C-alpha cells in the first residue's frame, strides 16, 4: 500500500484575484482542477491512500476530493501556515514504517515512477533547469545527494527540486521534522522540508534523484497558462455538435455542459462546466466554471468562476463573481 501526502493549505497569493474565492488547487487547467491532475497521476501509479493538508477554504478541497475520487482520504488542518515542513509533520500519526510519497499541491507532474517505487532508498524528483539560482537544488557526489541548497548564488548543479519526494524511511523523516521544529530552526521564516531532508542526510540516510521531465508549475497566472498549453495536446476534447456554429482550433478542452455559439475557440483554450461563450474569439485562455463570455477577443487570459465578460478587450485576469462591460 502506497500513501501520498499532498499539502494544499497555501493561500495562493500569486494567483489573486482568483484565490480570493477559490483554493488554488481547484483552479482549472486543461480540463480539470490542478488537484485533479495530481490525483489522477497518483491513482495511475498505485497510490491507495491520500493525506491532504488543508487550510485556506479547506472544506471546498475536501468536497471536491470526496465527490470525484475513491481514494481512502485523510484530512489534516494546518491552522497556522508555518511552512512545508510543519505541514508534513502534521501528518505523522497516519504513517508507520511504510514509505510515503509527497507531492506539492501546485505541481502537475508526469513521470515514470516504477523504478523509483521499486528502489531501496529515498528519491527526490529533480529537473534540469537553465537558471538553477531561482530554485532549491541538489548537490550530488557519486550519484547520491550530498546536500540541499536553496536558491544558491553559485549553484552546485542545475538540478532543481520540483516538489516530488519519495521517502523510503518515513520514521526518520518525521523524527528530523520534529527536531527542527523543537529547535525552532526556520529558513525564510518557516519550517522547511529541505532542512529536514538535510538532517536525514546527516543521519546517513541514502538519497538519490530521479528526473521529472513533465513538471508543470501552476503557482501564478503566467505559469498556469503555460501549463494549460503544455497539457492540452493530450487532454484535447470537445462536443462534436459544436462544429455547427463555431470554428474549433485544437488543442482545446470544452466541457460537455458548456455552451459555445458563433465563436472561434483555440488553440489552447480550456472551458469548464456550465460556462457560456457567444460571438467571441478565444485563444490561450482558461475559463472557469459557470462563467459568461460574450462579444470579446480574449488572449492569454484567466476568467474566474461565475464571472461575466461583455464587450471587447485583448488581455484579461478576472476573478470569480465579477462582471465587466465594454461598450
Structural write-up:
There is one protein chain. The protein has 7 helices and 25 strands. It has 327 residues and is of the alpha/beta class. The chain has 2 domains: 2-217, Spore Coat Polysaccharide Biosynthesis Protein SpsA, Chain A (Alpha-Beta Complex); 236-325, Hexapeptide repeat proteins (UDP N-Acetylglucosamine Acyltransferase, domain 1), CATH 2.160.10.10. The strands form 6 sheets. The protein has a 7-stranded mixed beta sheet. The chain is elongated and about 65 Å long. The mean pLDDT is 85.
Short overview:
The chain is an alpha/beta fold and 327 residues long. It has helices at residues 34-44, 58-68, 84-89, 114-118, 170-182, 193-202, 221-235, and strands at 2-8, 28-29, 32-33, 47-54, 72-77, 100-103, 107-110, 122-128, 136-141, 144-150, 159-167, 207-211, 214-217, 247-248, 252-254, 259-261, 264-265, 269-271, 276-278, 281-287, 292-294, 297-303, 308-310, 317-318, 323-325.
Radius of gyration: 21 Å
- Number-wise, the strands total 25
Which sequence of strands runs across the widest sheet? 5-4-1-6-11-8-12
**CATH superfamily membership of the largest domain, which one?**
Spore Coat Polysaccharide Biosynthesis Protein SpsA, Chain A
Residue share in β-strands: 25-35%
CATH topology name of the largest domain: Spore Coat Polysaccharide Biosynthesis Protein SpsA, Chain A
Can you give the helix content as a percent range? 10-25%
Number of individual domains: 2
Question: N-to-C terminal Cα separation, in Å?
Answer: 59 Å
Count of runs of 4 or more consecutive helical residues: 7
Report the sheet with the most strands, covering strand number, pairing sense and barrel closure. 7 strands, mixed
**What characteristic shape results from the CA principal axes?**
elongated
CATH class of the largest domain: Alpha Beta
Mean pLDDT: 85
The name of the CATH architecture of the largest domain is Alpha-Beta Complex
Q: Which secondary-structure class do the elements indicate?
A: alpha/beta
Low-confidence stretches: none
What oligomeric state do these chains adopt? single chain
Amino acid at each position: 500500500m502506497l500513501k501520498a501526502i499532498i499539502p494544499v493549505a497555501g493561500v495562493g497569493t500569486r494567483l489573486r484575484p482568483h484565490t480570493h474565492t477559490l483554493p488554488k488547487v481547484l483552479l482549472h487547467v486543461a480540463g480539470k482542477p490542478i488537484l485533479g491532475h495530481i490525483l489522477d497521476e497518483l491513482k495511475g501509479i498505485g497510490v491507495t491512500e491520500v493525506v491532504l493538508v488543508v487550510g485556506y477554504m479547506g472544506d471546498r478541497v475536501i468536497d471536491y476530493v470526496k465527490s470525484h475520487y475513491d481514494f481512502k482520504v485523510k484530512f489534516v488542518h494546518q491552522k497556522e501556515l508555518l511552512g512545508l515542513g510543519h505541514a508534513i509533520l502534521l501528518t505523522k500519526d497516519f504513517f508507520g514504517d511504510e514509505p510515503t510519497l509527497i507531492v506539492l499541491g501546485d505541481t502537475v507532474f508526469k513521470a515514470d515512477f516504477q523504478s523509483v517505487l521499486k528502489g531501496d532508498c529515498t528519491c527526490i524528483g529533480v529537473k534540469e533547469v537553465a537558471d538553477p539560482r531561482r530554485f532549491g537544488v541538489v548537490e550530488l557526489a557519486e550519484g547520491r545527494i550530498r546536500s540541499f541548497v536553496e536558491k544558491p548564488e553559485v549553484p552546485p548543479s542545475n538540478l532543481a527540486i520540483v516538489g516530488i519526494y519519495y521517502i523510503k524511511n518515513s520514521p526518520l523523516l518525521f523524527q528530523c521534522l520534529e527536531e527542527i521544529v523543537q529547535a525552532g530552526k526556520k529558513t525564510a521564516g518557516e519550517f522547511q522540508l529541505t532542512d529536514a531532508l538535510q538532517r536525514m542526510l546527516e543521519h546517513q540516510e541514502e538519497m538519490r534523484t530521479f528526473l521529472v521531465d513533465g513538471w508543470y508549475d501552476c503557482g501564478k497566472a503566467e505559469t498556469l497558462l503555460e501549463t494549460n498549453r503544455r497539457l492540452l495536446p493530450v487532454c484535447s476534447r470537445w462536443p462534436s455538435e459544436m462544429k455547427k456554429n463555431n470554428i474549433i482550433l485544437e488543442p482545446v478542452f470544452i466541457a460537455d455542459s458548456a455552451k459555445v455559439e458563433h465563436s472561434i475557440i483555440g488553440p489552447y483554450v480550456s472551458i469548464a462546466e456550465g460556462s457560456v461563450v457567444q460571438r467571441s474569439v478565444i485563444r490561450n485562455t482558461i475559463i472557469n466554471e459557470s462563467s459568461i463570455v460574450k462579444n470579446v477577443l480574449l488572449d492569454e487570459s484567466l476568467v474566474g468562476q461565475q464571472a461575466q465578460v461583455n464587450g471587447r478587450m485583448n488581455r484579461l485576469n478576472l476573478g470569480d463573481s465579477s462582471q465587466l462591460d465594454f461598450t
